[in-house]
Amino acid sequence: MGRDLFAEIMKNERDNVPAIYYSRVLSTDSVIEDAMEKEQYELFETEWAILKVVWDRQPVTAPDVQEALAGQKRWAYTTVKTLMDRMAKKGLLHIDKIRNLYLYSASITKADAIKSEIKRTLKRAFNGAFTPMVQFLVEHEQLSDEECLYLERIIKECREQKKK
User: Which of 65, 79, 82, 120 fits as disulfide partner to 75, beta carbons 3.0 to 4.6 Å?
Assistant: First the structure.
């Protein structure tokens, strides 16, 4: 299916919203998959909680993670250790064993995890269309004047980069 035909279909399917809003739509699933990085991380809430502690304190032990999360989660040591071992098997964490001490560090960066999460949301909720997602966020979040100015600056910088 050609990009122009796809844009026209998207326009008709979305209550005659101008096609410009869907100009970044990826036209087929194979294109979406090609555009996304080979490494996709689908993190559960529990994995996010653990990774946030690991990113801040790495290398870290399972008891340290349990203690750091004690105010939010009431997980037993065995639960944290099991989750972290499973995360290591998934490639999310790296384990260094020094005698009886297991030190965990992140195998993925925070930026890669966030990028993967955003791309997955973009694909699921907005059919890969970037502009409607941004429009939705701007319209449904209470942005401060400072945040609006920041967004305007980002857009300006993007335009200047494209001119180069």
Answer: 79
